[in-house]
Amino acid sequence: MNPPILSSTFLLTLLLAVGLFFFIRASVKDRTEEVKLFSEQAEDSLLSELRQYFSQRAYRVAAVDAAQNQVTFEGYVRPSWFLAIFLTLLAAVGILCLALILSVVFPQIGRVFLGLLLLAPASGYFYWQKAGRTEKVSVKVETAAGVEPGMQSAIAIKAHRDEIAEMQRALPLKIGRD
Q1: Is 63 helix (H, G, I), strand (E, B) or coil?
Q2: Complete DSSP assignment for 142-170
Q3: Which residues of 92-107 are buried (b: 16+ CB within 10 A; e: fewer)?
Q4: CB–CB of 26/164 below 8 Å?
Q5: Model confidence over 149-160: pLDDT tens digits?
Q6: pLDDT confidence of residue 9
Q7: pLDDT digits (tens, 9 = 90+) for 64-120
Q8: Contact 167, 155 (CB under 8 A)
Q9: Quick one: which of 88, 101, 158, 159 has the most CB atoms within 10 Å?
Q10: Calpha distance 91→106 (Å, rounded)
């Protein structure tokens, strides 16, 4: 095989392997965000609706600060079987590509590189160990008088971005300006 073609293919395969490594690592990254949401409901009714919403989502009240009208919820987030299997398959394909390139470069020991495929399940195991964790959601309800027209309550929430998006779909909340 032509050495320039082989070297460029090897370089591209290494770059893809690095991208795959960072993709697997990013699958367990913390994606906590802080946003301010507004509601037309009064503070007390909104706070009780939030408690009911989070209890339905398998969160429990971890701390209550009545003076600041702040509640912290905790819930265990399970890892996804689909994502664990998907990451394992991606790692297997990536390792297979690297093993094929290495077996072309070093044909005398080419079969040894196929043994690298045994490392593929480590990516699924890594995800499974790191993704299952306790998530905290901090909610602070305050009056929105003068901040946002037509809104009675403001919610300062610190949570995973997917949880915030799901809460916006389930409850009549709007993102507003601070």
Answers
A1: strand
A2: EE-TTTSTT--EEEEEEEEHHHHHHHHHH
A3: bebbebbbebbbeeee
A4: no
A5: 667 788 889 998
A6: 85
A7: 887 877 889 998 988 999 999 999 999 999 999 888 888 888 888 877 888 888 889
A8: no
A9: 159
A10: 22
d(CA 151, CA 46) in angstroms, rounded, equals: 12
The Cα 160–Cα 33 span in angstroms is: 6
End-to-end C-alpha distance for the chain, whole angstroms: 62
- 155, 137 contact by CB (below 8 A): no
Instruction: Report how far residue 13's alpha carbon sits from residue 132's, in angstroms, rounded to the nearest whole number.
Output: 31
d(CA 116, CA 100): 11
Tokens standing for residue 152: 């009675």
Element (H, E) at 139: strand 133-143
